[in-house]
Hints:
By secondary structure, the protein is mainly alpha-helical. The chain has helices at 11-19, 25-32, 42-64, and strands spanning 2-4, 9-10. The chain has a two-stranded antiparallel ribbon. It contains 3 helices and 2 strands; from the N terminus they run E-E-H-H-H. The chain has one domain (2-56): Arc Repressor Mutant, subunit A (Orthogonal Bundle), CATH 1.10.10.1100.
Amino acid sequence: MYVCLCLGVTDGQIREAIYEGCCSYREVRNALEVGTQCGKCACLAKQVVKETLTEVQSSQAALAYPAAYSIA
């Protein structure tokens, strides 16, 4: 879905930027220039960033403690 119509930035591009190392909305904005034209997309872009960062953090936490791990 398009998040920023001015620059044609999609939610997939925002997620990809996070997967490639962006850790905040500011970093995503600097990388993709989302929200830098008219600004109407900023709220939605921030929401996509927040949701994606939460997903990434949850998946990293799950990997840190595999189910097969047992304390002997």
